[in-house]
Amino acid sequence: RTITYQAPRQVASFILRSSYQHRYRFRFRFRYRYPSTTKPNSGYFASRSRELSTLYLVLPRCPIFSSVSSIKRSRDSNHGSNHSKMRASSDIASECDINATNREHGISSPSPASVNTNNDSPKSTATTSTTVSSTTSASATSGTDSERHQNRKVFYIRLAMIATLVTATALVSTLVGSYVSADERSNFELQYTDSVSEVAEAFQHRINTKHDIAKSFSAMITSRYGNVARKVAGEEPTWPNATMPDFQEVSEGMLRIAAGRALSFNPIITQDVDRMGWEAHAAESAWMLEDERLVDARSGDTYVEWPEDRTVSFGIYSRDSDGKVVYDPGYAPESKFKNVMVPVWQIAPIETNKKAVMFNLHSEENRRQALDHMMEHKVPALTAILQLVQDADMRPSSILFNPVFDTFPSSKNNNEDTSPWDHKDSNTGEEKVDEDEDEDESGQKVVGSVSIVFSWDTLLNKILPDYIKGMVCVLQSSAGQTFTYSISGDTVTLLGRGDRHDPTYDKYAHQVHATLSPLRGRLSMSRTTQRKFITYEMHMYPSAEFEAQYVTNRAGLYSAGAVLIFLFTSVLFLLYDYL
After folding, report:
1. In DSSP terms, which residues pair with 3 in a beta bridge?
2. Crossing angle for the helix pair 9-21 and 63-77, to the nearest 10 degrees
3. How far apart are CA 105 and CA 188, in angstroms?
4. How far is it, in rounded angstroms, from Cα 211 to Cα 206?
5. Tell me, what DSSP letter sits at residue 320?
């Protein structure tokens, strides 16, 4: 315990001497002040120039100091009523100080009896106080040591409990944060994988659907105007002079299924063989196109000028290097089929595509490349990415060309299980590496094409649910063209040319090839030939927007919540002893 005591130097001398003689382990803290009016008295501290003002003692329960403490309490509480006790204690202190001073100077100290022979009352009081102190000293010291030991154990227990709470807080908050973060990351990767699967499957399915529609429409034309049908009707073949009645109504449903922007029938015309005859047939059949302006440009309410006023009777046209409309010369020196023209004849919907009627598709480089592959190998082909004249803003589009044959393949060839994309030796089963093409034994002749115009964003829309946002798709063609899209639910946004995905997500890249369905019973081709075709592939990546939907700050919030819970518990535990 701590005793704050103000006393003269004689009492301080007694305390210091007693503590040394009885070998008590005390801790003292002293505060001194210089004397202002009084001079140092004789005695133990007579040679000191400072006077003890306040004495702080941290000591066990000792009878000596109990009497000193009782002196202070008596003086503070009831100085008048306990004056006798103070005198007795003061006598004890004075006696002890005098004896100590005498011993220091070599003077023998008188016995207690001789000092107080003429005054029995102080002697009796001092004797009584000394006796009480002697009888209670041992038990008080033992109790104080036990209390100190107990307090130390409590302190260590509290320290261990605080350390345990801190460790538990750190461990639990870390585990909670790690678990929530791992769960969010797993959910993000799972959603991304599912989205990739859906997009890849829908992407290829829609390519196949467009090809199936083009193939079906081509077969319908062959069935109606093919050589066999004309022979059964007792008529001569009409190719290329074929015009289908009610084209708009027939193609409307197919175009909707294919999700295309236009569907057309394009006959193949040879410059020196049948151009004049087909242009005459076109002028006579223009009324079947279901647009009066293609027959008479001045039939409408609005007056138009050249080249907007051109009609079918103008003939097959193309555009020069300046983009001006010119009568097509019917010659393409860059093509394997130099004297061939492929004009747009019947197209749906006619309202938005009437300007394309009679345009020679074989005159434009990208279209010519796909048409050459189609005519040479008798297989469907895709063009490179185009910017259509109907689109004021950039919108990557392509055209799928499917061949129209003059007749269906024979049953012999139709039953053969061959693929135009496989080129294996029939004896060894190994891939052929030669660049020579196999001879066509189907007996078919390509007399035209069915084309489906589509934009690439239509292959990506309405695939993902509304809560999926920010999936990045990079479309690349074998011609070196690259465009980047962002898919958010039903909305597809063109980000621009080039690969604009975030390289941070390269490890999540998925790739899908846009390949046309294999055609049975067609000409086989080598890999060298396959590389000539325009092919597409799409790379898919997540984005920061996509990731932000699943990887949030919940891990940090849950960790902070766990820390607050443990902190509140710790505060209550620490405040329990003080409440």
Report:
1. 57
2. 160
3. 93
4. 9
5. -
